[in-house]
């Protein structure tokens, strides 16, 4: 586990519904950092993967105690990461063996990319 002292973590995604896997990854992120920022993909940016309007997805995340700040993502996540420079970017374990374009940007400023299991094979896209 990373030391929390003045650390910021970033998690990003669509968050159509907040399911147990999301709760686990948000808790893990908050355990790793003092401040947790969640970037929610805008309706337009998420294209066909957003089934719940962005306003409601943001509202749901803002009501979560682990989350300190929610931002609307209207651009490639690499730009947001470069702007925010979070100490830690956390993605689900299912992304570990995939291409992660965030990694190159994170390494530029010395941040860390961590893969944490939400331990749920559930996706809101299955709904």
A few lines on this structure:
This protein has 127 residues and is α/β, with parallel strands linked by helices. It is built from five helices and five strands. Helix 4 (77-84) runs parallel beside helix 5.
Structure notes:
It contains five helices and five strands, in the order E-H-E-H-H-E-H-E-H-E. It has helices at 20-32, 43-46, 54-62, 77-84, 102-109, and strands at 8-13, 35-41, 69-73, 88-92, 112-116. The chain has a five-stranded parallel beta sheet, with helices on both faces. The radius of gyration is 14 Å and the shape is globular.
Tags for this model:
5 helices, alpha/beta, 127 residues, 5-stranded parallel beta sheet
Q: Which parts are unreliable, with pLDDT below 50 for 5 consecutive residues or more? A: none
Radius of gyration: 14 Å
Please write the string of helix (H) and strand (E) elements: EHEHHEHEHE
Tell me the strand percentage band: 15-25%
Find the count of extended strands (DSSP E, 2+ residues).
5
Number of helices: 5
Main beta-sheet annotation: 5 strands, parallel
| Class based on secondary structure composition and strand pairing | alpha/beta
Shape field: globular
- In what order do the strands lie side by side in the largest sheet? 3-2-1-4-5
- What's the pLDDT, averaged over the residues? 90
Q: Measure the end-to-end span.
A: 33 Å
